[in-house]
Specification:
This is Negative regulator GrlR. It comes from Salmonella enterica subsp. salamae serovar 58:l,z13,z28:z6. This protein has one domain. It has no helices and three strands. It has a three-stranded antiparallel β-sheet, with no helix packed on it. The termini are far apart. 0% of the residues are buried.
């Protein structure tokens, strides 16, 4: 079995609708995966 490690980009802004993720298989950095996520619906938080 492979252990997949997913990292979220540190430069995330709350007003952005995009998130960049990178993933790699533990103990094998040659198997990498770039993930691009774009939110379809915006999330609003009211206080």
């Amino acid at each position: 079995d492979y252990e997949l490690v997913i990292k979220i980009d540190d430069a995330i802004t709350y007003d952005s609708d995009e998130i960049n993720l990178s993933a790699y298989v533990k103990d094998n950095k040659n198997l990498t995966l770039d993930i691009y996520v774009k939110f379809i619906e915006s999330l609003s938080v009211t206080s």
